[in-house]
Design brief:
The chain is an alpha+beta fold. The protein has one domain: PH-domain like (Roll). The protein contains 2 helices and 7 strands; from the N terminus they run βααββββββ. The protein is globular. InterPro entries: GEM-like, GRAM, PH-like_dom_sf. This is GRAM domain-containing protein. Belongs to the GEM family.
Amino acid sequence: MLHMKTGPSLADTAMGRIAQGTKVIAEGGYEKIFQQTFDTLPEEQLKKSYACYLSTSAGPVMGTLYLSSAKLAFCSDTPLSYKVGDQTEWSYYKGERRDV
């Protein structure tokens, strides 16, 4: 189950939307970002994308929820840090559910 809200505060939400809009323009639009981020089928089409915060045990994660003809997917806007032994690693928080 996904728990989503618009953001932790109005100011954070506004700044996040500005940053996301800049990224979308720079990278060629939501369709292109979706295809670069996830494995897509040749006939798969992006139907809608939503800016949102995904609620996790570590707190809200700002990102984009994608609804395509074949899946529901989420990817964070920025990489998140996590520990592997003594080292800090960085990775985008993403997941998908096919056959939606």
